[in-house]
Design a protein that fits this description.
α3 (43-56) packs antiparallel against α4, α14 packs antiparallel against α15 (250-264) and α43 (749-761) packs parallel to α45 (783-795). It is elongated and about 170 Å long. A hairpin with a 3-residue loop joins β11 (1040-1057) and β12. By secondary structure, the protein is α+β, with helices and mostly antiparallel strands. Among the domains are: 467-554, Serine Threonine Protein Phosphatase 5, Tetratricopeptide repeat; 556-666, Alpha Horseshoe (Serine Threonine Protein Phosphatase 5, Tetratricopeptide repeat), CATH 1.25.40.10; 977-1239, Lipocalin (Beta Barrel). It contains 53 helices and 22 strands. The relative contact order is 0.03. TPR repeats lie at residues 380-413, 715-748. This is Cellulose synthase operon C C-terminal domain-containing protein. Residues 1-22 form the signal peptide.
Length: 1260
């Protein structure tokens, strides 16, 4: 094979020959400048320089050629032809004319592609086919310049090619005597042939001192000496010259020692001499035959044994070589074979190490390398093997240090540089890898083999740099370049597919892998890459299936490691599934059994720690990682990253921040760098969430922005952005953000929950219901999903569904807690705190007292472990059960005013009983309200204004209208649907009243925005101003009955409250109907505003301003037959200043409300009998004047003062009451109430603020 030398030719032309002499004239200076700019591809500066040179000499060949070359490179061939004609006109014909003619020919037609094809054939080790294409390019003309150098270098490696290449290179040397690349090519080829070897080696020795090509020349010099074998007396000075400059080269020194040993055996035997000469010519078969012939006659001949040992060494049969050289060294005079023996043992150990490494026996491999190092620590091969072994086993820092130590001793060591390049690439340090690649000369690149692989490596590093800058398109272009350079490289395919996946192009990523692996999809590397891609898509089952298709014998260590990791991860995943289903104790037990299997593998420990955190034991997860980190002098970054992930989960943001800063400047592998980016990404999102929760939305977005730019299609960052929009009140925008996420991942229950949350805020209840139902179906066994779904169902008002889900979650958690009882059955430790740390690890051998004292941790006593009351689900269920608890309330209310006895005077005593209870997502209530009304007896002077009026009084002046009182029992049922904001009730005014009539209503109370609401209602309610309006009245003198008025109508209200200010406005219209009472109608408008002076969790103080306007069609404020007996001014205006203070403690809540204002009342006059003209006429006749009530208008001050309170007597029993007074110019009313409420569910929630005391159903 001649691959490496041939590959060198492709890049040899990159060497720019310096000028032979320093510029000494203006022409020389300009030529130097022109070459300088042209070499750096700066065409404008080069053109400027060449034109200046033509001003000095219009026929200067270098200038004409330089300008012509610029035109060729710009694809302006007619202009280049013009410069060629000027050169061809010169006599004698300059070499530059031939060169430009060749350049133009190469740029014409398909010649440029033909040159690419020729070079490709060279890279594929097909020199004969390549040379045929080169000859087509030259078209019978002698090759010129760099291309001629390239051509002759390739030609020289072919059979008999030196016969043409040698004179061709000599011709070029005469034209360019100072061209260092030509000097190097000629010297290395001279050293290849026995006849010219000494001359070539000497030339290489001379060139090794040059700064430009010295490194390459030194490598070729050494290689030529290695090729020449053990030296004879004539070649010995060449070895000695080399060793004077490189005294630490143990290999060549051993080769020199072999030559001397062989030389000292000269003349002893013809067969021996023949073998030695054949060995010098590296003709191993002839040498073997000669030495074996000698050993048949002299089996203990030290030189024959030693010579055959060297043959075996070159055949890499190290065991045989060691045996033969060992026997040679034990013979008389065999001491000179000790050095070759040591060398063979050295190489044998390295061969054994390589074999063990290939068999994945890294312990044996490491031991053999260490043995080789003890034999000879100066040679580079053992340190190289050690560094390679360390790199393969993940000890990247140690491997890097090893490679760099080798390069300190030998900066040109190619294997060390290649190893370091690969390691830097693996460590995700593409900039360093590229810089090191750039230091390789063309010949060195060729020696490394597979030029396409090198190009691909370079493109991969450029892709990593672009991706690190956030230039995903640039990264993709670089990866596609790498794929074109080496289409069979599976890692390039995987990198490209991963990038496409990151850009949200999952289908394209799969197609990339499918097309790239189509040639042999079942080969182990293809299956392995597919498995890794499956993991990228979070499909470990598919990854496991793909790995199982790789035969065990063909699995690499990485493949076996991945299989083991997948098995371990599956067990951890099973434990996490238990935790997600609420079986945290079972999950922890299963995780504890996995701890020994994790060893000190970072990924395994990280997964285990994260699972512990998910199972509710964050501290154990952290401790697991801390223990390993504490044992490491230099902790593995991968382990620290896993530690950071668990810290992040635990909320230790300060520690995560410090860890990220610490790792920021460290050298990380590609995998570790990705882990770092992932942790930083999640940390950013978390900080943005925390800033949002604190109300700093601007900084939250600024914090989130880099994550959005880095992963614009990722669920995590987009859901965080949606939460920002929700916090800003833009629920519609948040919901739109979820739509593409749900299209991509409709089966993700967390996304469905997030979308449902946004829909709830956007008041799209239909969407929210669908998303919640979908989330619950997808996460039916995930307690976190069910708990969050219950929260959202509750916000929708579907409290029954929320309760059902939470009961399901808590039942699982309680069953799981029972599994921890064996540890907790021991009585509580009387010497420790009642509630201690709950470590539930059972051990066969108890720890020492010192360990117990140091740990200071005990298993929890039964009363601690028994009830996991701290779970989010149980807290939510507890709160929901309290809210939905069935309640029994018994009250007693008293209302009394100072109006005229028998007429407007009223003492109202009621004893309402209410039983309310949940039914599914709604509540029902049954109400029974005994009512007793007493207006007193109608005074003598008031008899003419009651019932039959003046006529009845005149007819029977001493007869009383009768006692004005009534009683009855009201019945009602009520319904409320929190989801819809709907309430309804239906019942009657108290049965037993003179008039009992159906009453009820329906209302809708819903939000408009986060801070505003509207209420609409339609109702039929009793008018309870007086006995007449509420129950109806009867005049015993005449038997007349009338009253029992109801208000029938609608009301609407808008309200706004942002916890600092509030405002409201309302309007209503009612038709007032009664029995034998004139119909009436009422319209009302009102508005108000208020400000919170105090608004804390347990205290509120508001001050406001209110305005009310009421108008009735007619005045029904009187008590003669046909009047309703209720306050009904034709115009009523009130302007008030209300002040409200609410306060609560753990067991007590109260409220004080007061208002003071001014009232304007206008009342029209009214006939005594608005419904009966006959009675009206009789009354007028009896009075001797028109029977009419006079109108009035008045303005007065008014005030009201109300207090309410509630006290919690026990976990289920509450007592409360209220007391109030309303006062106007001619009116004062007192009211008070007490009540006792029993809740079937124990209550430990905070009491209501403000307090809402229980009121009678008739308290309108």
């Amino acid at each position: 094979m001649i691959r490496a030398p041939l590959l060198a030719t492709l890049l040899t032309g990159l060497l720019t020959p310096p000028l032979a002499l320093a510029a000494s004239t203006p022409e020389d200076l300009l030529i130097e400048q022109g070459h300088f700019w042209q070499a750096r591809k700066n065409a404008p500066r080069a053109q400027e320089t060449w034109n200046k040179l033509l001003e000095l000499d219009a026929q200067q060949p270098e200038a004409l050629y330089g300008l012509g070359l610029i035109e060729v490179q710009a694809a302006r061939l007619p202009a280049a032809q013009a410069y060629l004609r000027r050169l061809q006109a010169l006599k004698p014909l300059p070499q530059q004319a031939l060169q430009l003619e060749q350049d133009i020919a190469l740029a014409s037609g398909d010649n440029s592609q033909r040159l690419v094809d020729a070079r490709q054939l060279v890279s594929e080790d097909k020199p004969v086919q390549a040379l045929a294409l080169y000859r087509q390019l030259f078209a019978g003309r002698p090759p010129q310049g760099d291309l001629a150098r390239e051509y002759y270098d390739i030609l020289a490696y072919t059979p008999n090619g030196w016969q043409e290449a040698g004179p061709g290179i000599e011709r070029l040397r005469k034209l360019r005597p100072q061209d260092p690349a030509l000097m190097l090519i000629q010297a290395k080829h001279l050293a290849r042939f026995p006849a010219s070897r000494s001359r070539g080696i000497q030339a290489l020795a001379d060139l090794s001192s040059r700064k430009d090509i010295g490194g390459e020349a030194a490598e070729y010099w050494r290689q030529a000496l290695v090729w020449s074998g053990p030296p004879g007396p004539a070649e010995t000075p060449l070895f000695e010259a080399y060793l004077r400059q490189h005294p630490d080269d143990a290999e060549l020194r051993a080769q020199l020692d072999k030559g001397r040993a062989l030389s000292r055996s000269g003349g002893l035997d013809p067969q021996l001499a023949r073998g030695i000469e054949a060995l010098r010519r590296n003709e191993l078969g002839e040498a073997e035959s000669a030495f074996q012939a000698r050993l048949k006659t002299a089996p203990n001949d030290a030189n024959a044994l030693g010579g055959l040992g060297i043959v075996r060494q070159r055949q890499e049969r190290f065991s045989d070589a060691e045996d033969l050289l060992s026997r040679a060294s034990r013979q008389p005079g065999g001491a000179r074979w000790q050095a070759p023996l040591a060398e063979v043992r050295y190489w044998a150990l390295l061969a054994q190490a390589r074999k063990a490494q290939q068999a994945n026996d890294f312990t044996t491999a490491h031991a053999r390398v260490e043995q080789a190092l003890r034999l000879d620590a100066k040679r580079p091969e053992a340190p190289l093997a050690l560094a390679g072994l360390q790199a393969q086993t993940g000890q990247l820092d140690a491997a890097e240090a090893g490679y760099r130590r080798i390069l300190q001793q030998d900066p040109r060591n190619l294997e060390a540089r290649r190893g370091l390049i690969d390691l830097l690439a693996e460590s995700d340090r593409p900039a360093e890898a590229l810089r090191l690649l750039d230091t390789l000369t063309p010949a060195e690149r060729a020696k490394l083999g597979n030029l396409d692989r090198l190009k691909a490596t370079q493109a991969l590093q450029e892709a990593k740099l672009a991706e690190g800058r956030g230039d995903l398109q640039g990264a993709r272009r670089a990866l596609e370049d790498a794929r074109r350079a080496d289409p069979d490289d599976v890692w390039t395919l995987l990198a490209l597919a991963r990038l496409q996946l990151r850009q949200g192009q999952a289908q394209a990523a799969r197609q990339t892998l499918d097309s790239g692996l189509a040639k042999d999809p079942q080969r182990p590397e293809a299956l392995y890459v597919r498995a890794l891609f499956a993991l990228e898509q979070n499909d470990p089952a598919a990854a496991r299936e793909l790995l199982d298709r790789i035969p065990s014998a063909k699995r690499s260590p990485a493949m076996n490691g991945l299989a083991a990791d997948l098995d371990f991860d599956a067990k951890v995943s099973a434990a996490r599934d238990l935790a997600r289903r609420g079986q945290q104790q079972a999950a922890r037990r299963q995780l504890a059994t996995l701890e020994p299997q994790a060893g000190e593998r970072a990924a395994a420990l990280g997964g285990l720690a994260a699972a512990y955190a998910e199972a509710g034991d964050v501290e154990r997860g952290l401790r697991l990682l801390r223990d390993v980190l504490a044992r490491e002098r230099t902790p593995d970054p991968a382990l620290r990253l896993q530690y950071g992930e668990v810290l992040l989960r635990s909320g230790a943001d300060d520690e995560v921040n410090a860890l990220l800063h610490d790792l920021q400047g460290q050298r990380l592998s590609a995998t570790q760098r990705q882990g770092y980016e992932d942790l930083l990404y999640r940390y950013r999102v978390r900080q943005a969430d925390q800033l949002r929760e604190r109300g700093d939305l601007v900084t939250a977005y600024d914090t989130l922005a880099p994550a959005l730019a880095q992963r614009p299609d990722d669920d995590l960052v987009n859901t965080a952005l949606a939460r920002l929009y929700l916090a800003n009140g833009d629920a519609d925008k948040a919901l739109r953000l979820y739509e593409p996420l749900l299209r991509r991942a409709p089966d993700n229950p967390r996304l469905q929950l997030g979308a449902a949350d946004a829909a709830v805020r956007a008041r799209d209840t239909a969407f929210a219901d669908r998303a919640l139902d979908r989330a619950v179906a997808l996460g039916a066994d995930d307690v976190a999903v069910l708990t969050d779904a219950a929260r959202l169902y509750r916000q929708l008002g579907r409290e029954g569904r929320a309760t059902e889900l939470l009961r399901q979650v808590v039942a699982v958690q309680r069953r799981d807690a029972e599994t921890a009882r064996p540890l907790a059955d021991a009585p509580a430790n009387p010497f420790g705190p009642r509630r201690g740390s709950a470590t539930l690890a059972s051990q066969a051998i108890p720890p020492t007292a010192d360990q117990l004292l140091a740990a200071a941790k005990t298993a929890p006593p039964a009363d601690v472990a028994e009830a996991p009351r701290d779970s989010a689900a149980e807290r939510a269920l507890d709160d929901l059960l309290q809210t939905r608890s069935a309640r029994i309330t018994q009250g007693l209310t008293v209302r009394s005013n100072d109006n005229e006895r028998g007429l407007g005077k009223l003492t109202d005593v009621e004893a309402p009983l209410e039983i309310d209870f949940p039914l599914g997502d709604v509540r029902l209530a049954v109400r029974v309200t005994p009512v007793s009304l007493n207006a007193g007896s109608v005074g003598r002077d008031a008899r003419s204004r009651f019932g039959g009026g003046p006529a009845a009084t005149q007819a029977a002046p001493d007869v009383s209208p009768g006692s004005q009182s009534d009683s009855g029992v009201g019945l009602a049922v009520a319904y409320s649907d929190p989801q819809l904001g709907l309430k309804a009730d239906a019942g009657t005014t108290p049965l037993g009243f003179l008039y009992s009539t159906p009453v009820g209503g329906v209302s809708l109370d819903r939000p408009l925005t986060d801070n505003s609401r509207y209420t609409l209602s339609a109702s039929r309610r009793a008018v309870i101003d007086s006995l007449t309006s509420f129950a109806g009245s009867e005049d015993a003198r005449t038997g007349q009955q009338w009253g029992g008025v109801t208000a029938n109508g609608v009301r609407g209200q808008l309200g706004y409250d942002d916890s600092q200010f509030g405002a409201y406005a309302y309007a209503s219209w009612y038709r007032l109907l009664g029995n034998h009472v004139a119909d009436n109608s009422r319209g009302e408008l009102g508005a108000g505003l208020y400000r919170y002076l105090i608004n804390s969790e347990d205290s509120r103080l508001t001050l406001g301003l209110s305005l009310t306007g009421i108008a009735y069609d007619n005045n029904q404020a009187f008590f003669t037959y046909g009047h309703g007996g209720y306050f009904s001014p034709q115009r009523f205006y009130a302007l008030g200043v209300p002040l409200t203070w609410s306060q609560r403690t753990d067991r007590w809540t109260w409220q004080l409300r007061g208002a003071v204002g001014v009232q304007r009342i206008v009342q029209d006059g009214a006939d005594f009998y608005p419904t009966d003209a006959r009675l009206q006429a009789a009354a007028s006749q009896a009075l001797g004047a028109p029977a009419a009530y006079g109108g009035q208008s008045k303005t007065s001050l008014g005030y009201s003062l109300h207090g309410a309170t509630e006290y919690q007597l026990g976990r289920q029993l509450f007592v409360g009451g209220n007391l109030g007074v309303d006062n106007g110019r001619d009116f004062q009313q007192l009211n008070g109430a007490v009540y006792l409420r029993y809740a079937l569910e124990p209550q430990d929630r905070a009491l209501a603020l403000p307090v809402s005391p229980y009121r009678s159903p008739y308290d309108n």
